[in-house]
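Q: Hi! New to this. If I give you a protein sequence and the SMILES for adenosine-5'-triphosphate, can you show me the bound structure?
A: Yes, paste them in.
Q: Okay, here:
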Amino acid sequence: MSFKQFLAYSASAGSGKTFALSVRYISLLFMGESPGSILAATFTNKAAAEMQQRVVDSLRHLGENEAFLDAIVAETGMSREVLFQKQPEVLKRFLSSTAYIVTLDSFFSMILRSASLELGLEPDFVTKEQPEETLEKHFLDEVDAHGLIPSLVKLAMDIEDKRFRKIFELMQHFYKVDPLLPEQSEVTLSVNKEEEACEILRLEMLKVLQNTDAPDRCLKQFDTKSTKELFGKKLFEKETLGEHSWYKKVANTEIEAVYAALKQRLALWAKAREMIVLHHIFKIYDYYRNAIITNAIHSGVLTFDDLTYFTYRLLKEIPSREFLYFKIDAKFKHILLDEFQDTSTLQYKLLEPLIEEIFAGQGQSDFKSFFYVGDTKQSLYRFRGGVEELFEWVAQTHGIEVEQMDTNYRSSRHVVEQVNLWFEGKMEGYVAQKSKVDAHEGYVEVFDSEEVIEDAVAQAQRLLDLGVNVDDIAFLVSTNKDGQTLQEACAKAGIATLLKTSSSLKNVPKVAALVSMVSYLFSGEKIDAEAMLQNVGKTFAEIDLSWFSVFMSPLQVVDRLIREFGYFDNDRNLLKLLEFASGFSDMPTFLEEFGTSSISVAAHSIHGARIMTIHGSKGLEFEYVILLDKLTRPNSDKAPLIFHYNDELVIDQILYRTQNREHFDENYARIMEERKASALKDRKNVLYVALTRAVEGLIVIKKPEASIFDEIGMVPMSIGRLRQAQPMTSGSVPEPVEGIDSSITISDYGTQEITEHENDEEKDLAAILFGTALHYTLEIMGSFDEKSLQNAMVSVRNRYGQLVGKVGLQEIEKRVRELIEDERFQKLLKNAQIMKEQSLSFEGELKQIDLLLAYEDHMLVIDYKSSKKYFLKHQAQVHHYQKAIESITEKPTEGMLVYLLEQGIETVNLN
Ligand SMILES: Nc1ncnc2c1ncn2[C@@H]1O[C@H](COP(=O)(O)OP(=O)(O)OP(=O)(O)O)[C@@H](O)[C@H]1O
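A: Thanks. Here is the predicted structure of the protein with adenosine-5'-triphosphate bound:
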């Protein structure tokens, strides 16, 4: 058994850190630990959902992923046989208990909810970002109520950037790190006094210079109107005045003494300004914090910063850890943390009591563990308080072994080698990665381009022409705005794309139109009905909405609209909407929550090349990456305050940025240098993340000048070959099947009570659900045998049981069993390479083939159907698939429709 109780992996991109985390999680389950005792925290909701899914999938299909199984064998020291034996029980235990696979934010929100009343906060708060205007207004009202607007204006003058926005940003930053802020120090210097002292020394300097007959230009340097102007003089960058060429001849001990005294005084003047500015900021900040907290408590809406702030206070004020555990009804014995390099100090401080608890038990018989993984080369969130130094600090504090991993399991050989070439020697501590043994050759190309967008689109087109599935392409950009520009260009070129926002249900036009119609019914604003009417090609005069009553539940209304307008059309996103609606009992809450929701669209229900910011792509991987240079110039660092963290990782100094201050103040100069170095490191980290996302191919579109890639000396190059793509298995689109006779209804959503209005559309909906579930069963079966069917039925029951009901499930099982027992079907499988749910792009369209059988000399495309109602349509569809496969594989391709009907299996050859 290789399980190490206390361990950290500090390893490069693609080396399997997240993989190791999942392995460890499952290993703990096999070792008998209960899911409720393991806290696994990831960085994004998406990562948490994926990990949860991965745990379930891996437990269900334990034998299918050799690498995973081997890793669990090594970790637990159990044989494969023992693991298989334990599998059903472990899966059952996992499915029947609460698992804490969460983001840190959602975990904190859970803690806070459990005891928020201690802070006067109702536990039903919601967490979402607030519009800045709302926060600004609360802040200004509070400042105004205390008659402090003049102080605010004064502060704006002091920080030299006179916009209110800047102050607001400062306040936000203070709040973000509130618990880490140092005590406000006393104002011990006076700006006026320092100015007077500087003035005396300046005049003295003029006098001593005149005494030595210094030339006019030397005197002129000290002929200034204000201390600020004098402070800005470049000549102060020298240690002594004599080092400056103009003064070489005139400098003497007297002059140097005045020069040194003046420099010292100017440093004090800057310090005095810093003190006074900080004093004002802290004063105003008290009101800001007050306004924000009061607003959060009253509205019950918490931003993520509020969440951290309140949780911190809670943990400070809560009587004991035992009390906390009692409140959340869990006691964690094992903690696993992903992407640790981006954990902020504050987040760590919130977790610290739980981690300490684990170490406190060390040496006792209790089995406890702590594991974290990260890569400081991928640290991107310094601006949000992410402190990469935390990685080492935690290891040292607790004596945790830090292990390296040097094999890249993600990328093709050329991608790995090229990344090594780009970063070796240019990134501190970079250790070249090895390729995995069976790595593809892959492809990397860097273009110089004046037309970044146009060339990126052209490269995507090139990939598509080679048969690459559009879903396997990702464009990585620097900003959201670059992403939007690119999306418009892709749309013009006819390339489907998905921006992050398009993966949110509320942005799916069809869903948005439907919800808008609900809004019309509720509020009577005619404009809200327009989108849906347009979608269904009707006018107000042609529709009957008399059935509507304000007493109907949101679910009933959405469901009725779908039926009334024949709107379903195989759309699984509408199922998601129904599911969401079932959680609300009143219309206003439903409408409001939908408006701010971020429900992800049904998997694979939308297709296109992803467009993502580099930040958003962290932790993800894509077959082909097209990476674009930044379209606009990088912003220069202008933050008025600089926060310095000490070795204990709390803020020990806040510096007020003043131009040229580095010439007067060594401490300031050092911190600014550190900051510059960190900024450079951050920029390289961003490049590193971007260049390590590709699995097979990487194309970089680089500007010939002022490129973000200049930092690593990137030049145009090309290595490897782009091949004609084989059909990829990039997930699945179980195609809903139309029309079967069945008594199944969709009456099982939450609180729905509308079973009695059965009509044709309802039957269609039921049939679609049935078809979807049937396809899903066939898709997830490891092979076509009884054992795989039994395994598959467990997931089908979990996923579709509620929707298709018991009878539906039995019918699915019966029909699939008939298929696997069908001799004709089994004969087809013999000597064939079996590929399920093949996605491919052909003639600009996406295809999803249920089953593709590859024989030595020909191919066979099989499409499953659960009803013969649309035979001609089915036939045309399969013909189309045949054509696509034939053109890609250049092999004769046959087609077959396999009907899984109530009365038995029927097949139709299409040649
Ligand atoms: N030991 C392994 N054997 C086979 N495949 C692996 C192994 N470890 C990881 N992989 C696969 O390699 C890919 C990259 O792994 P993973 O995402 O865990 O890397 P990572 O270190 O977390 O990357 P990043 O730092 O970019 O987030 C995934 O597709 C994963 O399934």
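A: The first strand starts at residue 6 and ends at 10. Let me know if you'd like me to explain how to read the tokens.
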